[in-house]
Amino acid sequence: MTDVARIARAIREAGLSGWLFYNQFHRDELSDLALGIRRAVHNSRPWAYVVPAEGEPTRIVHAIEPGILDHLPGRLVRCTARDDLFEAIGAAIAPGARLAAQFSTAFPVSSFLDHGTAQAIERLGIRLVSSEELIVDCLGTLDAEGMASHNRAAFALHAVVHSAWTRIRSAVAGCEAVHEADVQEWIAGLFTEAGLVTDGPALVAAGEASADPHYEPVGRGREIAPGDVVQLDLWAREPGERSIFADISWVGVLAARPTTEQARVFDVVVSAREAAAAAIDAGLASGLSGADVDRAVRERIGGLGFAGGLRHRTGHAIGTRVHGYGVNLDSVEFPDHRRLREGSCFSIEPGIYLDRFGMRTEVDGIVRGGRLELTGGPRQKSLLDLGGGA
Question: Distance (Å, rounded) from C-alpha 299 to C-alpha 32?
Fold first, then answer.
């Protein structure tokens, strides 16, 4: 059920006049998510929902789809003409109001309000501001139920990754050929056994392919060869619309022990992961941002001589989507200066990518009780290998 009181409280705390939710063709999944509107509901005409800081919300619907907001509180306005839609929005909030809406110069992922509609609203004398902070408060943090859901998924993924590596070891010991797609299929089967669901195949990248952070195999993919680095990245959650994802990455070598170079790169990414965790624990009380954490990781990796191997941010928010709407650990791609707060859930996944191979270690974290809690089983401290490592 949509907690409109929580939305209004967040608006007041941000010092804003209100928050505009606007959608057509379900293009704004944030508005759908915040207001509990299922994608199966017909949405061929625009609707708007204006929540003021104080007072009654306004539901503005098209006469051809009048019931789309029936589950929400507020005064109802039906319209057919586009001019009537904007007139109703203008009547729902005072002239000169600072109205939050789904757009951002920093986060394209949360920019859904089209420029033409934004211009039409601003011509009413309303000042539009980004809803990016409100999104974190209302959609980017977990309650106790969400934390428990995430933690169960994280523990299950830990078991899956070890089962998958055991199967790789067994296949190699039996002189079987193992392709990247074989491992993807094994992981998918393990998800089913564990009662998990996901939105795509796990990342399995061997040899030079491990240097591609978002590698996808063609056909059966590469045959995993002796000495290869093997990167595994898997994400899943329990069934249910409110279930929360977990997302982890482990890495191994198809050898009894790693080379000196492989061991060195792994040591650096582990050091960077631990630096991120230490920075979060030390800085939460003083308003640490996602960008602050990413900078700490970049400084650690650069200081150890691997700045040229950086390809991506340190981490992303996690929620009912694997890439959620909370704070990201990012100072470069989409710099996130929003502060980490109670209930924030995110990945910590520093990686180094060279010409011959790449390595990433990934754990998930939650802010609970003002402290960082790393979720799931023990984090990776040594490379998976054929000799019993990790």
Answer: 39
Residue 21 bridge partners (DSSP) = 49
What is the rounded distance in angstroms from the CA atom of residue 317 to the CA atom of residue 307?
24
Which has the closest alpha carbon to 236: 152, 301, 307?
Answer: 152
Give the CA distances from residue 201 to residues 31, 156, 272, 384, in Å, rounded to whole numbers and listed in that order. Answer: 28, 16, 27, 21
Q: Domain of 50: which CATH number?
A: 3.40.350.10
Q: In what order do the strands lie in the sheet with 75-79?
A: 75-79, 58-62, 47-52, 18-23, 98-101, 127-130
Tally of domains within the chain: 2
* Claim to verify: residue 265 and residue 370 sit in the same structural domain: yes
pLDDT digits (tens, 9 = 90+) for 113-167: 999 999 999 999 999 999 999 999 999 999 999 999 999 999 999 999 999 999 9
Nearest CA to 75 among 99, 48, 95? 48
333-342 pLDDT, tens digit each:
999 999 999 9
> pTM of the entire structure?
0.94
Q: Are residues 129 and 162 in the same domain?
A: no
Is 278 found in the same domain as 131? Answer: no
Residues 135 and 158 in one domain: no
Q: Are residues 163 and 105 in the same domain?
A: no
- pLDDT per position as a tens digit, 186-239: 999 999 999 999 999 999 999 999 999 999 999 999 999 999 999 999 999 999
